[in-house]
Amino acid sequence: MIHFCEPMGRSLFTAFVHKHAKVRMAGLRALFDVLCTGVWKNSVYVFEQMVGFRDPNIVPIREFYDPTTKVNYFAMFVVDRSVVTRDCFYKTMAKLLIDLPDRIDHEGRIFPYLISGLYDPNDGIRQTTFELIEEIGLRHEEENEEKLREIKQFGYVPEWMYGGKIKDEHVKLPFPLKHRPRLGSRILVKSYVRRYLKALYREIADWIEEHAERASHLLYYSICYVEEFMTQYLDHMLIAIYKSILVRDNKVIQTNIPNSLRLIGRYVVPTSWAPLVIQAIRNELASFYTYTASGSLKAFGYIYAGSIELLQPG
Length: 314
What we know:
mainly alpha
């Protein structure tokens, strides 16, 4: 069945790849209206086209004879050469997450791209993205006021805050995070981080430096939001990092990976990470990797530094 919004959505793809920035921005601005055309529940078909997604269990018969190419238009906007176009892209993603009727169905697809704005080369875009995510978080708190009421009223304090001795203002986070993200923002990122973590681990070890850099950025800023929630993903995450931490010829990875490990040390209790790291140092964990012991030993130093960071006087 052909849905009315699907052909209209595909008609925007030409604008997305146009050589003029104004045309690409016009296509982005038209995206929201197209997704709300007809039965808005059908907008999922447009999203699948835009991110180059295809159900692995469904392969069109025609592709056996006429191969097609899938293009991720969202990924193209993240690296767009125009600053104003990238700014328009992130604002459009935020608008979709705030106003789109079926936004809950698409949050998992959109959030990783929105978080990408936190490490955009332009400082203005980074600040704007943080503010947009905070606005989305506020909206989430307002819509789920009853569910979050107890957390706010009883003042839930995670274990890494040592019973409230550590305050939000004591926590130093990377630019553009001016302060600890609000509760709604943290909850939303926690809800969807699991969807891209496995893919992110593969990208961190990618031989293409550009892919590895973006993955390290995404991991770093994701940890800033999910905090102690990363505990349940430590086993696979640490193994993925043991190789990346030994990279010496890429300054971006050399910065992001140690910083990510410091955050792990800050947010995750030692009883959770210590057994995993010690096993790796002894080469008892994934011993068939030659870099496991050396990488884990180096990682241990950064994790330990993060675990005592907030206990330093002053």
